[in-house]
Amino acid sequence: MNVGDRVRVKESVVVYHHPAHRNQAFDLKDAEGEIAAILTEWNGKPISANFPYLVSFPNKFRAHLRDFELEVI
């Protein structure tokens, strides 16, 4: 997966920061978005992020996800 790829969340991922469902459990399964960034370094130093894929969804919503939770469309 690369920055700019269209992806779909293939597993059940519950978030609590979705703008339309603030402070409520919201499942991202089958939601589609675009990879905005892949986090591999911070201030020039390599990092091992637990959730390295930053995915932008419609409605100005972004979430950090793992590679096995996503599939390329």
Task: Describe the structure in your own words.
The protein is mainly β. Helices cover 0% and strands 44% of the residues. The protein is built from no helices and nine strands. It has strands spanning 6-9, 14-15, 26-27, 32-38, 41-42, 45-46, 53-57, 61-65, 70-72. The strands form three sheets. The protein has a five-stranded antiparallel beta sheet with strand order 8-7-4-1-9, with no helix packed on it. Strands 2-3 form a two-stranded antiparallel sheet. Strand 5 and strand 6 (45-46) form a beta hairpin. 12% of the residues are buried.
What are the salient characteristics of this protein?
5-stranded antiparallel beta sheet; 73 residues; two-stranded antiparallel sheet
- H-E order: EEEEEEEEE
Instruction: Give the CA-CA distance, first to last residue.
Output: 10 Å
The total of helices stands at 0
- Approximate strand percentage: 35-45%
Radius of gyration: 12 Å
Large-scale geometry: globular
Major sheet summary line: 5 strands, antiparallel
How much helicity do the residues have? under 10%
Averaged pLDDT: 94
Number of strands: 9
Query: How do the strands line up in the largest sheet?
Result: 8-7-4-1-9
Structural class: mainly beta
Assembly type: single chain
Q: Residue ranges: pLDDT <50 for 5 or more in a row?
A: none
Brief sketch in words of this structure:
Helix content is 0%, strand content 44%. The protein is globular, with a radius of gyration of 12 Å.
Q: How is this fold's topology laid out?
A:
Blueprint: E1 6-9, E2 14-15, E3 26-27, E4 32-38, E5 41-42, E6 45-46, E7 53-57, E8 61-65, E9 70-72
Antiparallel strand pairs: 1-4, 1-9, 2-3, 4-7, 5-6, 7-8
